[in-house]
Amino acid sequence: MDALEVNKQLLGEIEDMGFPRARAAKALHYSGNTSLEAAINWIIDHDNDPDIDQLPPLIAVNIDIESPQPSQTNEETQNKVQELRDQARKRKEDEEKKLEREREKERIRAGKQILEAKRIAEDNERKRYLALRKAEKEEEKRAREKVLHRLEADKAERRRMLGLPPSVSHTAINPSRYVVKEKKNFFHSATKAEELRECLRSIRRNHKNDDATVQRAFQTLLIYVGNVVKNPDVEKFRKIRISNPIFQDRVGRLKGGIEFLELCGFERIEGGKFLFLPRDRIDLAVLNSAGSEIRSAITNPFFGLLSCE
What we know:
By secondary structure, the chain is mainly alpha-helical.
């Protein structure tokens, strides 16, 4: 391209409107010199071009071509320019609104993707939690089985040391062997150790939701038994006032507490006001067995709570 072909008359009108010659010439050339309106539209569309007022190097401006239309008065031209500017502004506003709608659609789409990703993450976290809980339950089950096996082995060893025959399988035990006497209110069983253990189970079962009360009762019974074993000749360790508030709170009020002491040899005296263990009725084997059963109950977290106990 050696020259810009422009219409002299239209060029003058555009310059009269305040536009630089280079801009006016380029507008007329690139709009085909068809009309003042087309040239003004080109100027409006390219208003932000950095080189809009610069002519390409070595390019001349040919202003000899004929005018395609009658010239307009200056006032008509100004009105036309304003109209064209209004139209251009309207187009830009419409384009901005369209772009804003597109951006809003994109924000909604992105928001949906974020919500879906969050839902998937929460679902995966829930599945991971359920899998973890399942693994924990299985581990707890294995731990209980290990404790039960160890308890069974310990029980068998205690029976062997006491010279007792092996215990009968739990499935073969006849429940009718465990009955409560009306007067003494303690359990009959095949052996004294089983009777003692059943008393401790009764305390645990009746207070399964109050571990502090159960542990305090076991510790108190262990102290009573231990004091007699260590000091069999001291009468104060072999005599308990049943109405004593501390005794009642820790042992007396609990089903199985007084029965346990009676199995150890204590008997009611003075109209049932005291529990007393005569010196000649002390049986160290029974007391040692009672102490062993209490310690086992204290250390076994599942004592008295599992159906297979």
